[in-house]
Design brief:
Elements (H helix, E strand, L loop, with lengths): L9 H28 L2 H15 L5 E7 L8 H10 L10 E4 L8 E4 L4 E6 L2 E11 L15 E10 L3 H23 L3 E6 L8 E6 L13 H15 L2 H7 L4 E7 L6 H12 L2 E5 L7 H10 L4 E6 L10 E6 L5 E7 L7 E7 L4
Parallel strand pairs: 7-10, 10-11
Antiparallel strand pairs: 1-6, 2-3, 4-5, 5-6, 7-8, 9-14, 11-14, 12-13
Helix pairs in contact: 3-4
């Protein structure tokens, strides 16, 4: 049933429609006139502001990790690149692989535009590698490199997990990347370059390919375990050394005739710790400044070996003289170079890099 009120006639509808259409056309005309009066950048700002307030906010947060900070390489980018090599899935379509003569395994990297999905503590994260051509300040400058590409990673996740990603996930990637690099890196053997050219004496390196390990080392099992436990314990006690105000380093003194395994033990330690070896012969050092420069040039996480340290020192015969009851001199102890000529001395130098 209908109420007593009657429906509007068709002529009334047409009149209302015509009035509304006229109002819209007038508003459009006014907006077009204003657009000529308002600068373009102001109109763009107003348009983006309106879109921001009226467009629904996305729950996805994206972190941009540039390859460079503008001054140096971005450590987070390098760590992410290393970490994502271990997260390649069957769904990945394009990869870049390479290998240098000094590398043991293939190096795998993402191709432009590829995506990797990772999970951390129940949070799904999506990685994407983005390439773009860098802006050129002066296209007429012949010294400016051409076709320079800018690269960055985009890490997307639900914004509710921002604190977890920044506080836990990113530090985890940095530590994991460090471990991966230590596992695959090629150890180096550094020796002295005796050529006294420009810059004086310096280190030169070759790959350390000594096969000795603690598993193959001919050594008493109990003593071998003591050495391994001592090395492992020392590596983990950096904070303790810092707390007591001591330098974080460890020294060993080995002695014995040639062929008893001193060099093999050094190589086994280097392979166990993944440390480079610096072989220093003091007989080739003529000035204190050269020795100081060589020490400063040693890399972190390395073993510094000083061979035949007895031959580098002037140890005159020392005799402990006493008299017996008859007043005659007795030579009780004699220390000479010959007694220690097979000594080998080395330090382990540690750092957190």
């Amino acid at each position: 049933m209908f109420s007593g009120k009657e429906f509007p006639s068709s002529s009334s509808f047409l009149a209302a429609y015509a009035s509304m259409a006229g109002s819209i056309m007038m508003a459009q005309s006014i907006a077009n006139q204003l657009s000529h009066l308002i600068p373009h950048h102001v109109r763009s700002y107003l348009s983006s502001t309106l879109r921001y307030f009226f467009k629904p906010q996305s729950p996805i947060l994206t972190l941009v990790i540039d390859e460079s900070t503008g001054i140096a390489r971005n450590q987070v980018y390098d760590a992410s690149e290393t970490y994502l090599c271990t997260k390649v899935s069957p769904n990945t379509k394009r990869l870049k692989i390479s290998k240098t003569p000094t590398e043991k395994n293939l190096t795998i990297k993402l191709e432009k535009g590829e995506k990797i999905v990772d999970n951390y503590e129940g949070v799904e994260l999506q990685w994407r590698l983005v390439f773009a051509e860098a802006e050129k300040n002066d296209s007429h400058n012949p010294f400016q490199p051409r076709n320079v590409e800018k690269r960055w990673f985009e890490l997307s996740f639900h914004r509710d997990h921002k604190e977890t990603i920044l506080g836990s996930y990113i530090p985890y990637i940095l530590e994991r990347a460090k471990s991966i690099k230590e596992e695959v890196r090629v150890l180096k053997m550094h020796t002295l370059n005796n050529s006294q050219g420009y810059g004086g004496i310096k280190w030169e390196s070759i790959n350390l390919e000594h096969p000795a390990t603690f598993e193959t080392l001919a050594m008493e099992p109990d003593l071998k375990n003591i050495v391994i436990e001592d090395l492992n314990r020392f590596v983990k006690r950096k904070d303790f050394y810092k707390r007591v105000g001591r330098a974080w380093k460890r020294g060993y003194l080995l002695y014995g005739p040639p062929g008893t395994g001193k060099s093999s033990l050094v190589a086994a330690m280097a392979n166990h710790l993944k440390f480079d070896v610096y072989d220093l012969q003091l007989a080739n050092i003529m000035r204190d400044s050269d020795l100081r420069r060589l020490f400063l040039a040693t890399g972190n996480r390395s073993i510094l070996v000083i061979e035949d340290i007895d031959c580098s020192l002037d140890l005159p015969d020392r005799r402990q003289v006493s008299k017996d009851g008859d007043g005659r001199k007795q030579h009780d102890v004699q220390v000479t170079n010959a007694a220690v000529r097979f000594y080998l001395f080395f330090y382990l130098i540690f750092d957190d890099c």
